[in-house]
Specification:
The protein has about 350 residues and is of the alpha/beta class. It is about 25% helix and about 25% strand. Strands 3, 4, 5, 8, 9, 16 and 17 form a seven-stranded mixed β-sheet that branches. It has a six-stranded parallel β-sheet with strand order 12-11-10-13-14-15. The longest helix has 14 residues. The chain starts with a strand and ends in an 8-residue tail after the last strand. The chain binds NADP nicotinamide-adenine-dinucleotide phosphate and zinc ion (ZN). Zinc ion (ZN) binds next to loops.
């Protein structure tokens, strides 16, 4: 095992601070990555603060699942990667590989519950009680869960694609966003801004819903055909019964009815935001009238994540980022809660070298 520098949360109440963690020796199928950049997802904050009752946090907690870096070592059985390659790791580092969902490369839905998430999942290698994520110098991952980053993507602004990107790309593809479809994206944060970019790139008429009037102009710059202030009932009503698909990225509990009312017949509201407290149950008749659907979606499989990275490289799509040193992570969490980020913080992991 090797000790590497990291930033971790010692408890739900403490700020994140410098720490040392162990990484396993590189096994025959493993790739070691020297991490250059790690995006800051709202899920990192939910987990660091133990906000998800269904998934309690084990401390210390090292978040981070938008990881880009250079391959620094490979196991002798690894064929797809070599030292120096630009590589990435997203939200998962392992799964059973045998069940029908894993065989379809939907590893996030592993039927036997063996998806190993990048942090706060029981560590099957026993290196630590749970997996530790990308707020660290290095990570060792089975090559099946390592992604290739096309060299024409800027590595820092590619990092958020590994969670924010795939989490929006996957439902937009699954529910067939494209020409002739009207798609709504709720919330202009890390996930939402990728949703606006992808929906536009796929050719759908794209409408952004935001609480923040100050984000309207950016919404259009990012590709929205229209922007609706969600607090303004008249603006909302102007879109009644018109959407094929709405994807909500909102990180807090909120009333779903105003959005369900905007779906046309057979339209779908997809939840990807994962708030601490549940949303109030939607009004049943609002769903019956119009045969509307309410659905959820979780990140995306490894094959689809690679497809998304290649699509981004081809179409020149990446995240709008604010690059910060890891020492600013606690401030970044506060600003994320205030909606004060355009539109994803990315940690420059060079800054970790200043720590002990
Ligand atoms: P984020 O950058 O903080 O963005 C969330 C956006 O939601 C905010 O920018 C804001 O947009 C809106 N919002 C926040 N609080 C709100 C409130 N009280 N009422 C209405 N709107 C509110 O977070 P993120 O990283 O994009 O993540 C969003 C959520 O998705 C989190 O809960 C995260 O855990 C979850 N997530 C889910 C998956 C998945 O696979 N399903 C993957 C990653 C993350 P406006 O200011 O524009 O309104
Ligand atoms: Zn995430």
């Amino acid at each position: 095992m090797a000790s590497v520098r990291a930033f971790s949360a010692p408890s739900a109440k403490d700020a994140l601070s410098a720490a040392s963690i162990e990484r396993r020796e590189v096994g025959p199928a493993d790739v070691e990555i020297e991490i250059q950049y790690c995006g800051v997802c709202h899920s990192d904050l939910h987990t660091a603060r133990n906000e998800w009752e269904v998934w309690p946090t084990v401390y210390p907690c090292v978040p981070g699942h938008e990881i880009v870096g250079r391959v620094s070592k490979t196991g002798n059985g690894v064929r797809a990667f070599k030292e120096g390659d630009l590589a990435a790791v997203g939200c998962m580092v392992d799964s059973c590989g045998e069940c029908p969902n894993c065989k379809e490369s939907l590893e996030q839905f592993c039927d036997v519950g063996s998806t190993v998430f990048t942090y706060n999942s029981p560590d099957p290698h026993g290196t630590a009680p749970v997996t530790y994520g990308g707020y660290s110098e290095k990570i060792v991952v089975d090559e099946r869960f390592v992604l290739r980053v096309p060299e024409n993507l800027d590595p820092a602004s590619a990092a958020p694609l590994l969670c924010a990107g795939i989490t929006l790309y996957s439902p937009l593809r699954h529910w067939e966003a494209g020409a002739g479809k009207k798609v709504g994206i709720v919330g202009l944060g890390g996930l939402g801004h990728m949703g606006v970019k992808f929906s536009h790139a796929l050719g759908a008429e794209t409408v952004l819903f935001t609480r923040s009037a100050s984000k309207a102009e950016d919404g259009k710059r990012l590709g929205a055909d229209g922007v609706v202030l969600s607090k303004n009932e008249d603006e909302m009503q102007a879109h009644a019964r018109s959407f094929d698909l709405i994807v909500s990225t909102v990180a807090a509990s909120h009333n779903l009815d105003p959005y369900i009312s905007l779906l046309k017949r057979d339209g779908t509201l997809v939840l990807v935001g994962a708030p601490e407290h549940p949303h109030p149950a939607p009004t049943v008749f609002n769903m019956l009238l119009g045969r509307r659907s309410l659905a959820g979606s979780l990140i995306g499989g490894i094959a689809e994540t690679q497809e998304m990275l290649d699509f981004c490289a081809e179409r020149g799509i990446a995240s709008d980022i604010e690059l910060i040193p890891v020492q600013k992570i606690n401030e970044a969490y506060s600003r994320m809660l205030d909606g004060d980020v355009k539109y994803r913080f990315v940690l420059d992991m060079k800054s970790l070298k200043q720590e002990g």
